[in-house]
Amino acid sequence: MMEETRAKLIAAARKAFADKGYADASMDDLTAAAGLTRGALYHNFGDKRGLLAAVVDQIDGEMAARAQEQANRKGGSDWEKLLAEGRAYIELALEPEVQRIVLLDGPAFLGNPAQWPSQNTCLSATITTLERINKAGGIKPIDIEATARLLTGAALNAALWVAASEDPETVLSKAIEAFECLASGVLREQPDS
């Protein structure tokens, strides 16, 4: 029952935050849309900000999963998959729901995205991939955690830039090109393309 209540509130909030933005979404409207009371919101999330954190966590987790899925479909080496995953994550910044909730309202109301639990999951996955590449002798002798933090930070900041831009399509191509150039600097041998 509690999981069902949480799921209803998250779904209603996700729609309200996407349609109206966090600041303009009324707690009464979103609890009514879920068929629940304010008490259910407070009990499950503490407050509206706690509900936003849950919505951001859900969407950001979906973004990471979609980016990984897209990279796996393309195939290639661990390095090629890592770059494809970064590109896919940045490209998701073009989606209106992602833009508004995760990349604009999330940082404005929840603070530094690098501290979000979903970002720690991405960081852990990147560390694991870089360790595999390192064992195969594919990257320069640099600290793996530092490299992972900088690569995930670069992808996140590129997505934030795209989302906040007045011309997201143009910024997207610039952001991806710069991300790939920066990321490739850690390789022992530079890729041909």
UniProtKB/TrEMBL annotation:
DNA-binding region per Swiss-Prot/TrEMBL record: 26-45
Q: Which domain of life is it from?
A: Bacteria
UniProt entry keywords in alphabetical sequence: DNA-binding
Q: Per the database record, which ranges form the HTH tetR-type domain? A: 3-63
Q: Name the Pfam families for this protein.
A: TetR_C_41, TetR_N
Q: Supply the Gene3D superfamilies for this chain.
A: Tetracycline Repressor, domain 2 (1.10.357.10)
Q: Which residues form a coiled coil?
A: none
GO molecular function terms attached to this record:
DNA-binding transcription factor activity; transcription cis-regulatory region binding
Identify this protein by name.
Answer: TetR/AcrR family transcriptional regulator
